[in-house]
Amino acid sequence: MSTAHPTALVAEDEQTLRQELVERLGQLWPELSVLGEAADGVQALRLAESLRPDVLFLDIEMPGASGIEVARQLAGSAHIVFVTAYDHYAIEAFEQGAIDYLLKPLVPARLFTSIGRLKQRLGCPAQAAQKAQSALEQVLQQLDAARSPTPRAYLRWINASVGATLRLITVDEVQYFQSDTKGWRLVLAEGDALIRKPLRELVEELDPQQFWQIHRSTVVNVQAVAGVQRDFRGRLQLQLKQGGSGLSVAESYAHRFRQM
Fold first, then answer.
1. Is residue 152 part of a domain?
2. CATH of the domain at 14
3. What CATH number did the domain enclosing 236 receive?
């Protein structure tokens, strides 16, 4: 770890918040180099292993792998700052001081405090690393306990229009959602349906383990994907089990399919 030129990785699935955090770091800690940004836990693990940053800013709730899972995999390799929306009861897990945190929405004063602590730890890396290593697993266990014991209830049924008829459709029937001038088009094996719902609201209601956004206008049911291939321009295309034309994957979401 270099104290003169420290490095960082920012892992946060909310793009707006991720960009804000990177910008704030640039303002408050200009010596810090942000080597990379990750939109999910799997990408965070890959980037952390290849880039070896001094500091990891990890969102606790991310698709693919949670910040807690990422921290366990990378224990001891970097200083960790969790980004969380948890209330003050869960924040008790961080009060030992070896692992720091930022609350959503970001508060510049809190980020400034975290930066000060990180600078101190980077200034005496051996002592700080030993303290952080001994505290990390205890903090992670407390965070696990602080998470809701009741699994979140994701959307299972959708009232959608099929022509002039309102039909009740299970999300498992949906191959993918695609934006339409009138709302969201639900593409099913036997036809299409339509719902009117904002993108952010739709994505938040769907199970992130089953439904992945692959483009600003497309959310796919991964259970409906048969395979992945590249077109003549090198862009990823998803092939569906029920046939039909391939779905284009935007470059910003391509990392989700590199292991498929």
1. no
2. 3.40.50.2300
3. 2.40.50.1020
Residue 2 lies inside a defined structural domain of this protein:
no
Rounded to the nearest integer, the mean pLDDT of the chain is: 83
pLDDT (average), residues 215-228: 89
How many CA atoms lie within 13 Å of 76's alpha carbon, on the beta-carbon side?
5
- What pLDDT does 60 receive? 87
Phi, psi of 209 (to 5 degrees): -80, -20
C-alpha torsion 96→99→105→109, nearest 10: 70
Give the distance between the most distant pair of CA atoms in the chain.
68
The SS3 call for residue 150 is coil
Neighbours of 142 (CB within 10 A): 15
pTM of the model: 0.55
Please give the Cα distance from 203 to 197 (Å, whole number).
10
Domain that holds residue 31: 7-146
Indicate if 23 and 142 belong to the same structural domain.
yes
